[in-house]
Write a structure and sequence with these properties.
- By secondary structure, the protein is of the alpha+beta class.
- The chain has two domains: 52 residues, no CATH class; 121 residues, PAS domain (Beta-Lactamase), CATH 3.30.450.
- The radius of gyration is 29 Å and the shape is rod-shaped.
- The model has no long low-confidence stretch (mean pLDDT 82).
C-alpha cells in the first residue's frame, strides 16, 4: 500500500484526511506519518490493520459467523459420512432422507450413484421418484426395531454396518452388505453397498 492509497482509504472509511488525525488513528507521531509519505510506503503492521475492517454492526457479524459455522459443520458432517462409508469397496452409493408417516417408516432416496439398476432392477429415475422404498425395494423384517434405530435417544449421528434385504424388481430377494452414516438431526443418511451376498 502506498501513501496515496492510505489517504484514500482513511478518507473513505474514516473521513480522516489530515496527517495529524491519521497519526492519532494509528497511535504514531506526526513524524512517522511524514516518513510514510516521504518513502511512499506503509509499514505492514499498519497496512494489515487497514485490511481487517472493524465490524460496524455486530448483529450482522454474528449472523455471518453463524453461517460460516453452519457451513463448516455441514462440511465436517460430509467428511465424516464419506470416511464412514468408504470402509467397504462399494458398488452403489445413495443419499436419502427418512421419516415416519402414520407410524410407518419412510425412506426416500434423493441421490444414487453406481450400478443401481443391476442391483435392484429399478432405474435411478424410477427409484428417486418413489416416495418410499420400504416394501418395494428394501424389506424390513422387524419394523419396531427399525423405527427405534431411526430415532435413537441421545444420538445426533451414527454409523451402521450390516446386511440389508433388497427385493429385486423381478421379485428375487437378495442380501447386500453396506454401511450407512446417519445424521439424526436432519433425518438424512449416506449409504454404500458392496456386492450382494
Amino acid at each position: 500500500m502506498n501513501f496515496n492509497q492510505l489517504l484514500d482509504y482513511m478518507y473513505e472509511h474514516h473521513r480522516l484526511r489530515r496527517q495529524k488525525d491519521i497519526a492519532k488513528y494509528f497511535g504514531v507521531t506526526n513524524q512517522a506519518i511524514s516518513n510514510w509519505k516521504r518513502s511512499n510506503n506503509i509499514p505492514s503492521k499498519f497496512a494489515i490493520k487497514l485490511q481487517v475492517e472493524k465490524p460496524t454492526n455486530y448483529v450482522e457479524l454474528v449472523e455471518s459467523l453463524s453461517q460460516v459455522l453452519i457451513s463448516l459443520n455441514k462440511n465436517i458432517k460430509d467428511i465424516k459420512a464419506m470416511q464412514s462409508i468408504s470402509k467397504i469397496s462399494a458398488q452403489c452409493f445413495s443419499d436419502g432422507i427418512f421419516s415416519l408417516k402414520n407410524g410407518k417408516p419412510i425412506i426416500k432416496l434423493i441421490h444414487i450413484n453406481g450400478d443401481w439398476e443391476k442391483l435392484t432392477g429399478y432405474t435411478v429415475k424410477e427409484t428417486i421418484k418413489m416416495n418410499n422404498i420400504i416394501g418395494k425395494i428394501q424389506i424390513i423384517h422387524n419394523e419396531k426395531e427399525y423405527i427405534n434405530r431411526m430415532y435413537p435417544s441421545g444420538l445426533t449421528e451414527a454409523t451402521h454396518e450390516g446386511s440389508w434385504t433388497l427385493k429385486h424388481k423381478n421379485g428375487h430377494l437378495l442380501k447386500i452388505h453396506g454401511i450407512s452414516w446417519i445424521d439424526y438431526t436432519e433425518n438424512k443418511f449416506k449409504s454404500a453397498f458392496s456386492e450382494s451376498e
